[in-house]
Specification:
about 260 residues, alpha/beta, two-stranded antiparallel sheet, 12 helices, 9 strands, globular, binds D-malate
């Protein structure tokens, strides 16, 4: 699909209430496939965010806004007035930006393995170091660095196809795309002030062994959102929908059913 001038791969499945799936970094829309295939009865929409392939150039610092505008434009193209917006990690940062800019398009929120706070100075420096490394050695260098942070020890040991899938998503990024994503995340706004004003039904999902967004951080975020539900998925790291698609799908399904 052409979204704001960029050819954008999008998975669209089924009919019914729309769910817009926004993937994490440095992944792509295929991370949602095991989960989305189980959620029959709803329209599932999963685009690649433009950071998978495109250089945001001088717009990289306002990258989250670009990504949120892309998401709203995609809803326009598909004639979806309002969707359940489901963002994992970086996808959650985009969901917060949608809340800021296109609030009326959000019917409900699923915030998976994500946080509302901006980068600390140390995290921002880490992004710069990673960007330099990727510029030098290509996205391949991210595989060994990130797999131990994205997948729990149990998943790494018992789910070789998931390790392979995540590795291949990482490898298929472009250098420019990775740098655009890192820059956008580094410059993202603090979304904490938005939390108390969220009026749509919200589900917060955490992974029991997620080192990137520890469960206590996710629980604290949920506590700041009026009426939010919090669910911990046991045994998983940062990628609950890939590591435990069945358990995660059950949690999502219950939340979605209650919206109808
Ligand atoms: C992600 O999974 O999208 C990233 O780990 C988020 C981040 O680095 O802040």
């Amino acid at each position: 699909m052409d979204v704001r001038g960029l050819p954008t791969p999008v998975d669209v499945l089924g009919d019914g209430m729309a769910i817009l799936f926004l993937h994490g970094f440095p992944l792509d829309r295929s991370m949602w496939r095991p989960l989305a295939s189980t959620l029959a009865g709803w329209q599932r929409v999963a685009p690649d965010l433009r950071t998978v392939s495109a250089d945001l150039g001088d717009r990289a610092a306002s990258g989250m806004a670009e990504l949120a505008n892309d998401a709203a434009a995609l809803l326009d193209i598909l004639a979806i007035e309002r969707a359940v917006v489901c963002g994992l990690s970086m996808g959650g940062y985009v969901a917060f930006e949608l809340l800021r800019r296109h609030r009326d398009r959000i019917q409900a929120l699923i915030l998976s393995n994500t946080r509302a706070e901006p980068d600390t100075a140390e995290a921002a420096r880490g992004r710069d170091d990673l960007a330099a490394l990727v510029r030098e050695q290509g996205p391949e260098v991210l595989v060994d660095r990130l797999i131990p942070r994205l997948l729990s020890p149990t998943s790494r040991e018992t789910l070789p196809p998931v390790v392979e899938h995540v590795s291949s998503m990482i490898r298929s990024n472009t250098v420019e795309g990775v740098i655009a994503a890192l820059t956008a995340m580094k410059h993202r706004s603090d979304s904490t002030p938005l939390l108390s004003g969220i009026t749509v039904p919200t589900l917060v999902v955490a992974g029991e062994q997620d080192p990137i967004v520890p469960p206590e951080a996710a629980r604290a975020m949920a506590a700041l959102i009026p009426g939010a539900q919090f669910t911990l998925i046991p045994g998983v790291g940062h990628l609950a929908p890939l590591e435990e698609p069945v358990a995660t799908s059950r949690v999502f399904g219950e939340f979605l059913s209650a919206l109808e």
